[in-house]
Amino acid sequence: MTEGLRGRIAEFRRQYPTNQSALLPTLLAVQEEAGYVSERAVEEVAAALELAPATVMDTLSFYSHLWRGPKGRHVVMVCRGLSCEVCGGEDLLGELKRKLKIGEHETTADGRFTLITEECMGACEKAPYMLVDGDGYGPVRKDELDGILSRYA
Amino acid sequence: MSGMMAEAQEQFVEFVIDDRTVQGRMGDSVLRTALDHGIAIPYYCWHPGMSVVASCRLCLVEMDDFDAKSGDLRRVPRLVPSCSTPVKRGIRVYTQTEKVKASRAAVMEHLLLNHPLDCPVCDQAGECWLQDYDYWHGSAHSRMIDPKTKQPKKDVGEHILLYADRCILCSRCVRFCREVSGGSEVAIVNRGHRCEIDVHPGCSLEDKMSGNVADICPVGAFLDKEFLFRERVWYLQSAASVCSGCASGCTIWVDYRDEKIGRFRPRYNPEVNGYWMCDDGRYLWKQVYRDDRLMGFEFVEEGERRAVKWDRVAEVLAERLREFVEGHGRGRLAAVLSPMMDCETIYLAATMVRSMDPEAVLVGGPEPRAERNEVFRSGFTINAEKAPNGRGLRMILEKLGGPRMTVEALRSALAEGRIDGLWISGGYFDDTIDRTFGFVEKPGLLAVHDTYASSLSERADVVLPMTVWVEREGSFINAKNLVQPFRRAVIPPMGLVQDGQWLAAMVGQTGVYRASVVRKELAKLLDGFEAYEPPKLAKGIH
Amino acid sequence: MMSDSQYKPVLLRNRGVAEVRKLAVYRERGGYKVLEKALKSEPAAIVDQVRQSGLLGRGGAGFPTGLKWTFLPQGRTKTYLCVNADEAEPGTFCNRVQMESDPHQVLEGIIISAYAVRAQRAYVYIRYEYPQQAAALESAIGEAREAGLLGRNILGSGFELEVHLFRNAGAYICGEETGLLESLEGKRPWPRIKPPYPAIRGLAGEPTIINNVETLTCVLHIVDRGADWFRSLGTERSPGPKLFCVSGHVKSPGVFERPLGVNLKTLIYECAGGVREDRSIKAVIPGGISTGFLTADEIDVPMAFESFTREKNGCLGMGTGAVVVLDETTDMLKVLHNTARFFSSESCGQCTQCREGTGWMYKMARRMLAGGGRSEDLDIIAEQTERMGMMTGQSICGLSDGASYPLRTLVTKFRAELEERMEERKAKGLAVA
C-alpha cells in the first residue's frame, strides 16, 4: 500500500458518499499500480477502508475487469456482442488467437498480451471492435492487426 | 373504548389469505402472518432474525390490492414476494393458484438443476428444505441433460464445513455473519450461475457464533463438523433444555437418539437468545461423554472404598451424616452448593443438609468468570459468568437463611478448626474444584457431589456422582432473572440416577423424582418463582 | 410527420465540429446559454416543464422522467443525481457518441437537471469500456469547474453542484438503477427490492434520481425550446427526438437523430443506407437485444414506445432504440447462442430463476452449437422463457424479462431454421466455436 494509493483512497472517500463507495475505485487503482488485486492487497484494502476482507472479495469477484491474478502488460479486449459477431468478430478473435498463440483469458508467454472477450462494448457501428488497454479500434481488418499490436511493447 | 384498547386494535390489520380471514400485525410481512396462522408458504432466504432480501423467489404469491386511481380491489399483475410485502387491511392473498404453483415448481426445478443430489451422504437429509419443498411443490425429474456446475468442498472454520455444490444461494449465511455475529467472514463471489459462497483465505469462521451458520443453512451446504455423519435426523428426538455454559441461559433443544446425544440446537427465545446460541454451549454435549466422569456412588468404610448401589444411597448417606453430627456436634458441617446446579437440586441438597444439622453452614460455591461479556453485532451475549445458575444459588441460600459463609471464610474456619465436615458440590466443566479447594486437607468428613474426578474426589469419604444437567430435569435462573426449566433428555450412565432422586428420598419424598414437586416448595420460598417457558416459534419458522 | 431529411438534429447539433469538446468552442456555438436560462427559473418550474413535455426515459425503460422527478419527497435536505452512462445494452452506442463528441452538451444537461431536482452532487456512472469517453467528460468537467459552471455559486445563482465520475469495472447489471446504486456504494451490485424507490431512498439512503445521459440532454432542449416544441415532435405517447443506433448488416451503421415515430424501415434503408450487398433481411432487433427479434415482415413499424408490445410483435418495448439488422446469411443458431451467453454472463445471480435459467439456456445453446441440440430443447426454452420473465414479477429486476423476450422470439419466430441448423451440426459433429 503505497503513499500515493493512500492519498487516492482519501480522495475517493471525499468524493463518494459512503466509506464503502471508495472500494471499487480503490480496487481499480490497485490494479492500475500492481496489475491485479492479490490476496494480500485485499487484506490491505480491507484494513484501509475498515471493511472485512470477505466484503472486499465479494465486490472484487463480481466484475469482469478486476483481476485476482496476474495479467499481461496489455489487455486485448475483443467484443463478442451480436453486431460484432455477425460482422466478422469471430474471425477477428480467431486470428488473434492464432497470432498470439493463446486462448481466451490467457497471457502470452512473454507476458506482453492478455486476450479476453467482453460482451457488447458499445461500438457496434465500428464492428468488429476491440480495445487494447484504453485505445479503441474498429472496424478491425485482420491485416491491420500486426500494425495495431506493434504499438504495444 | 379506553385509549389503550383502541391502541391495541390499531396494531392489527385484517386481510384474507386464501379463504381465511387473518389478523396481521402492522409492520409484519404477509409471509410472517401466514406462517403464524399455520399457512405453509415455502421460503428459503427469509429469516425472522435477519434482513429481507426476497431473492429466492419461492415465496411468491398472487394478490389483490387496491388500485391507486379507482380504489377498487384488483389482481396485481405480478406475483409478489410475500416476505417483502407488508400486511395491509383488505388485501387478498392467494397461495394456491395455478400461477403460484407453476412459479414454485419452476424455482424448485432451477435450484435442483446443478444440485449434486447426494442425499444418501448428506447430513441435511430429513430436515432438508430442498427435499421437503421439492416433494411438495416440485417435480421428480430434471430436464437438464447438460453437465452440472460443480463447486468445491471447503473447510471454512473450526467447526464448519462448506459443501458449496449443495448451496442454493439463499444468502442467509452472508447476512448472518454481517448482521448477527458481525464477523462478516462469509461472502458471495462471482456472478450469475457461477456464484458461490466463500471466505477470504485465512479469515475463516472462527468466532463463537459460527455453529449457527449450519443451523440456518436450509440445505446441506454448511455442515457442523461435530455432527458430520453422526446421526440421521429422523431418529432424533428433542428435549427442551437450557444451556449450562454461562449465565445467559440460552434455551436449546437437545437432540438425542436412544439415550445418546446427537447435538444441541438453539431453541427460540425472544427474551434471551433469540434464534441463536454460541459454540461454547453448542458443543457442551461432549462433556457428557468425558472419560473422567465419576461413575459410581462410593463410601469409605474402615479405610476401604465401597461401592453403593443408587437405591441405597439415601439410606447410607443419611446414616453417615447423622453419625458425623452426633460425633462432632451441630454447626461443624459446611455444605458448599454450586452455581452449576439447578434450583431444585440446590434446594433439596441445602434442605437435606439442614435437616441433618440445622446449624450446618451453607456456602455459595465459586463462580468461574471470564473477563467480560462477549457481545455480538445483534446484541447476542455470551455472559462472563460461566455458570448457569449463580442467581438461583444466591437467591435460595439467602431465603433459607441460617449460618452462611463465603468460600474464603470457610477456608479460615477450616484452618482454625471450627469446621470439620465438608460437603462440596461441583458440576463444573473446568478445573474450578481443584483450583478452589486445593486448600482442603483431610477433614473429619469429606463428601463430594461432583460430575468429574478431581483431587478432591480421590480423597473423599463419600463420592456422589452428579449427573450432567441433560440427564436430569430442573430449572436455572439466568442473568435476566428468568426462571427457565429444562427437561431431561437422556438417562444418566449405568449406575447413576438423577440427583434429586436420592436427595428427595432423604427428606421424605418417595417415588420417582419430579422437579415439579420441588418447584412448588420453591415457589413458597422465593417470591415470583414461576418457571418461564419461552413462547413456541410459529410452525415452520427455522 | 416531417420527412426524414427535413429534421434538424438538436442532440447531435454539434456533430462534425471536432473542437466543440473545448469549452470555448462549445460556448461560441451557444453552449451554457440554456443553463443560464434555467438558473433564472425555479427548479419546480423546470420539473413541471419536463412533466408537460411527456419525456420518456431514454435508457430503455421509458418511464416518464417528469413523473419520476415528482417522487422526490418535498422536505428533503439532500438529493443525488446519478447519470447512467453505463450503456451496455447490446446494439446501443448513442450515449458513447454523445460523450466523446459533445461532452459539454452532456454536462450542461446534467447541471440543468441537477438544478431542477435540487441535487448537490451528481455522479456520472460510466462503463469500464468507455475510457476515452470518460477522459473527455473529465476534461469537460475540469473546464467547467474552472469557468465557474460547477462548484459553488454557479453563474452567481447560488446553486452549488459537484460532479464526479464513477467507473464501473465490467458488469451489465450496473445499468439497472438500483444495481448502479449498489455498485456506487461499493457493494455487490445486486439490484434492490422496490419499493422503496430511489427517489425516496436511493444512494446512501438519500433521495436519488437516476437518468440516462440522453434523457438529461433532452431536458436541456426542453428548457431551451419549451415543452410544446418537444411535444410537436414524435407521437402523442412518445414525444421528442431520439438517438437511434443502427448496426449489424447495414451499409452505413451509426447514430441517427430523428423524432420518435420514425419508421424502422426508414432508419434501416434511408439512414443506414440499406442492407449490405443489398441482401434481404432475416431478423431485426428494434431496441437493444432485450427487446427481442422481429421478422422481415414486422419491420414496417413506427419507432415509438407504444409500438412494441408482447401482443403486437412479441417485443419488450422499444428499449434503447438500438436497431440491429441481420441479413439472410445469418446463422440464427449462433444468434441464439450469443443471446443465451450474454444473459448468463451478465445475470447478477440474485434471483433463482434468472440465475439458474440463464445458465441452463446457455448450456443448451452451447450443446446445440456442438451438434447435440434436440427439438425438445427448443420446447424447453419456449417454456422457460414463459416462466422466467414473461410471467412478470418473477425477479427483482428486469434482466430476466430481457433474457426471455429475445430467446422466446427466436424459438417461436425462427423455429424452423433453428431445427435445421441443429440437424446440420449434428450431422457434421461440429466442435464448439
Question: What does this molecule look like?
Answer:
Chain A is 46% helix and 13% strand. By secondary structure, chain A is of the alpha+beta class. Chain A has a five-stranded mixed beta sheet, covered by helices on one side. Chain B is α+β, with helices and mostly antiparallel strands and 542 residues long. Chain B has three domains: 85 residues, Ubiquitin-like (UB roll); 185 residues, no CATH class; 229 residues, Rossmann fold, CATH 3.40.50.740. Helix content of chain B is 26%, strand content 21%. Chain B starts with a helix and ends in a 17-residue tail after the last helix. The relative contact order of chain B is 0.10. In chain C, the strands form two sheets. Chain C has a five-stranded mixed beta sheet with strand order 6-5-9-7-8, with helices on one face. Chain C is globular. The chains are: A alpha+beta (153), B alpha+beta (542), C alpha/beta (433). At the A-C interface, helix 2, helix 4 and helix 5 of A face helix 7, strand 3, strand 5, strand 9 and helix 13 of C.
Primary descriptors:
heterotrimer, B: 542 residues, alpha+beta, Ubiquitin-like (UB roll), six-stranded mixed β-sheet, elongated, C: 433 residues, de novo design (two linked rop proteins), five-stranded mixed β-sheet
CATH fold call of the largest domain in chain A: Glutaredoxin
Topology as H/E string of chain C?
A: HHHHEHHEHEHEHHEEHEEHEHHHHH
- Residue windows where pLDDT falls under 50 for at least 5 positions of chain A: none
Instruction: Estimate the helix proportion of chain A, in percent.
Output: 40-55%
Share in β-strands of chain A: 5-15%
Classified in CATH, the superfamily of the largest domain in chain C is NADH-ubiquinone oxidoreductase 51kDa subunit
Q: Which structural class best describes the helix and strand composition of chain C?
A: alpha/beta
Largest sheet of chain C: 5 strands, mixed
- Average pLDDT of chain A: 96
**Biggest interface in this structure?**
A-C, 43 and 62 residues
| Mean residue pLDDT of chain C | 95
Based on Cα principal axes, name the global outline of chain C: globular
CATH structural class of the largest domain in chain A: Alpha Beta
Give me the count of strands of chain C: 9
* Largest sheet features of chain A: 5 strands, mixed
Structural class of chain A: alpha+beta
Whole-number total of structural domains of chain A: 2
Q: How far is it from the N-terminal to the C-terminal residue of chain A, by CA?
A: 27 Å
